[in-house]
Amino acid sequence: MTKDHSFNHSTWSPEELRGALAAAGVALWSWQVDTDELLMDGHGYELWHVSKAEPLTFERLSEKIHPADRDRVREAFTATRAVVGPYEIDFRILVGADVRWISARGQGNDAGIKNRKMSGIFLDVTLRKNAEESHELLAGEMSHRVKNLLAIASGLTKITSRSSSSLEEMTEQLTSRLAALGRAHDLVRPLPHGNGDAALLGDIFTVLLAPYDDGGAFAGRIRVAVPRLGVGENAATGLALVIHELATNAMKYGSLSVPEGVLDVSGAITGDIIEIRWTERGGPEVEKPTGAGGYGSKLLHRTLAGNLGGTLEHDWSKEGLLVTLRISGARLSS
């Protein structure tokens, strides 16, 4: 007869179980449904950042739940009073200024009308949730960029057709513009660490805007005059994203969408602040957009504030759009 080497509950000592729970970051809880009394182990109090000095109830603990999730969690826990079996819910809690993601997993118990009890665990899943949010942002950003690139390719074709006298000339110019667009797009990608010094501020603007400038009779409608400053490796990608987004909008809706439109980019230094003015003239009449703005608008503000420590302002005058960028000099050179 062969031995059965499968484990059973008696295989694990209380010390081993406690060690495994601690290593996994698991907090235990038990909820007395009728009295609302809630018990947690030591890690649970640390996770929720609540004091052991006062009796703990689910109502008191739910005050720590993020306001956007609070009603949803209360409704879920209330619903589980009538449910027997396992359940799981993820939500955010506030610990000072920090936001933590908690996964509550438990088991309902219908052992009698009185003394109804539910038990389970709390897990800190903040890292996983942050990773999921980052992936969603990246997916949204990539989708946005692909749509922009398609719109840019169409716009570049129209620009090239205006300044070409033959199919061969148009083919040559369009190929050159698309190659320049490819070089500009390289600046939008994150620079590998230690990949050398980034370009000068004026060079970045010139390279990124080169594909949009016309040739022939329409040549020279994009002018760049900014201070001679070095852009650090960390700031180059964020700045390139901003320029790329503004140029795409100008191609779709602004001064670069028509032959007579012009774009002037100028800059000045005030203390540690670099102010850049993006001025569009000669394009379609400008109307201020309604609503909260699309993904591109959110990307601009998030990049300016997060990557460059700066701000962005729009002046929607009928003569043309004026965008003012204010960037931290220290952040630009980092």
How does this model look, in words?
The protein has 334 residues and is of the alpha+beta class. It starts with 13 loop residues before the first helix and ends with a helix. It is built from 10 helices and 10 strands. The strands form 2 sheets. The chain has a 5-stranded antiparallel β-sheet.
Rg over C-alpha atoms, rounded to the nearest angstrom: 29 Å
Major beta-sheet overview: 5 strands, antiparallel
Helix residue percentage: 40-55%
Q: How far is it from the N-terminal to the C-terminal residue, by CA?
A: 71 Å
Unreliable residue stretches: none
Quick structural overview:
The protein is an alpha+beta fold and 334 residues long.
Task: Give the key terms.
alpha+beta, five-stranded antiparallel sheet, 43% helix, 10 helices, elongated
Set out the fold topology.
Blueprint: H1 14-24, E1 26-32, E2 37-40, H2 42-48, H3 58-62, H4 67-80, E3 86-95, E4 98-107, E5 117-124, H5 126-162, H6 167-188, H7 201-209, E6 222-225, H8 233-252, E7 262-270, E8 273-281, H9 295-307, E9 311-317, E10 320-328, H10 329-332
Parallel strand pairs: 6-7
Antiparallel strand pairs: 1-2, 1-5, 3-4, 4-5, 7-8, 8-10, 9-10
